[in-house]
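Box 3.1 A note on notation
Throughout this textbook, protein chains are presented in two layers. The first layer is the amino acid sequence; the second is a token string describing backbone geometry. Keep the layers aligned when reading.
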Amino acid sequence: MAESSKPILYSYFRSSCSWRVRIALVLKGIDYATVPINLVKDGGQQFSEEFQALNPMMQVPALKIDGLTIGQSLAIIEYLEETRPAPRLLPQDPKKRASVRMISDLIASGIQPLQNLSVLKQVGKENQLAWAQNVISSGFNALEKILQSTAGKYCVGDEVSMADLCLVPQVANAESCQICE
């Protein structure tokens, strides 16, 4: 792949959404460049006009690849899966694939956004830790019940999937909120 066509990931090192995309890129052996977007510095670089032109939602990650720019981590991972299918991050079996998507959505839509930086700012500094702990604990309780029927070596069966890419950064968030050790 020529240098000019190397994918570019706009990312923040502590963003769990960016982290899941970085895992997917590495697992699929995709060489990419990173443009850091600091979510804290200067009031948040994601709010710059330049970044807003890339991603109107003003969130990381954003991936420039194959002549398009994709925002939202699960959309990026699904695009990578459709265009670079090896190794698979979604099982061939439709039931297992549905389980992977359900777990991924539970984490990416039901836990992570409720304890991310923009929401924590809204709940006030004195309530942030308790809020994050409650959101993550509630989500993990639901996730544990689901994993009882889907898990093997990984979230769904014995192969790494998109669900695992979502879970790993969320566990790190839980650890930083003193939920699990």
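The first helix runs from residue 16 to 27. The longest strand covers residues 8-11.
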